[in-house]
Amino acid sequence: MAQRRALVTGVTGQDGTYLTDLLLAKGYEVHGLRRYAASAGDLPLFRLPGRRSVGREGALHLHYGDVGDAARLIRLIEAVRPDEIYNLAAQSHVQVSFDTPVHTGDVNALGVVRLLEAVRTLGLAGRTRIYQASTSELFGAAAEWPQRESTPFRPRSPYGAAKLYGYWIAVTYREAHGLHVSNGILFNHESPIRSEAFVSRKITRAAAAIAVGRRQVLRLGNLEARRDWGHARDYVEGMWRMLQQEGPGDYVLATGEDHSVRDFADLAFRLAGRPLVWRGGGAAEEGRCAATGEVLVAVDPRLYRPAEVNRLLGDASMAGERLGWRHRIGFPDLVREMVEHDMAALRGSAV
């Protein structure tokens, strides 16, 4: 059997890193698309905790490009002729999307069209299977919990709205042009290599820094926001499983368990050795050190979103039944891994 070939856009991100590790371990030849501004040092694969792909680096090929460049996409896909494409490229920060709505739309919405149109134009609809990275932010102000594939979409941010376009254009190309394209509606998934711009890593980095005396206070926005948090390593396996199916489909990947931002911070600080007690409410709420009484977590209203999504909770039953997928790493172990990694990094012992 010939070696399978995959093209991964957004290869330098968290999901691109874990997915590349998985694909290399499965014997794929992997081609990664990285932005022109990125460098080889932006690829954290070789520092990934618990790597599975040791010895497979020779099967990884990096290419400069961007989903905003249609001509480049066509040339690259024509040259690589991938069996599978994983479109992970995105402006992926919800808060930032309110400040950069045009850029977010160009990348997260029109970038999907450029990629799908490249595959269609090259006549690869019958050969190349495509994964489109969708998001639980599609559900936004959902009227039901948990959210599943049939739950109506109600996005509450430019990020969610752009991803909604990406979702429906993928469905349109599937139905109109016969592309094997699947949407993965992934709920929040984190890891030790998550960008510090995201609240999960912001919390674990701050808890570690405060524990070792390098920082005094962590400032957060809405402590009440609840999310379904899983581990990126589990979720990239779900992506791969979607493209192993005979037919395409759209799947929710989630743990089925939600926690508040306060819960995340509470656990992270406890694991870092600085347990908290909470005082006050709303913008005046504080997390104080249980031992000393000093304020370690404070609310900053400037960090509130213009339109908040209060609760996201997923039902991955369909993925379990059809893909045989389930999450393996629970919330406590996820937070523990992140805190321990950040503690080790600050103490100078992380790779």
UniProtKB/TrEMBL annotation:
Biological-process GO terms, alphabetical: 'de novo' GDP-L-fucose biosynthetic process
Reactions mediated catalytically: GDP-alpha-D-mannose = GDP-4-dehydro-alpha-D-rhamnose + H2O
Keywords, alphabetical: Lyase, NADP, Nodulation
Family (UniProt): Belongs to the NAD(P)-dependent epimerase/dehydratase family. GDP-mannose 4,6-dehydratase subfamily.
Record InterPro entries: GDP_Man_deHydtase, NAD(P)-bd_dom, NAD(P)-bd_dom_sf
Names of required cofactors: NADP(+)
Class of the enzyme per the UniProt entry, highest EC level: lyase
CDD domains: GDP_MD_SDR_e (cd05260)
Domain of life: Bacteria
Family annotation (Gene3D superfamilies): NAD(P)-binding Rossmann-like Domain, UDP-galactose 4-epimerase, domain 1
One Pfam family, short name: GDP_Man_Dehyd
Span of domain NAD(P)-binding: 7-338
Stored PANTHER family: GDP-MANNOSE 4,6 DEHYDRATASE, GDP-MANNOSE 4,6-DEHYDRATASE
Listed EC numbers: 4.2.1.47
Lineage: Bacteria, Pseudomonadati, Pseudomonadota, Alphaproteobacteria, Rhodospirillales
Organism listed in the record: Caenispirillum bisanense
Function of the molecule: Catalyzes the conversion of GDP-D-mannose to GDP-4-dehydro-6-deoxy-D-mannose.
One GO MF term attached to the UniProt entry: GDP-mannose 4,6-dehydratase activity
HAMAP family, per the entry: GDP_Man_dehydratase
Identification of the protein by name: GDP-mannose 4,6-dehydratase
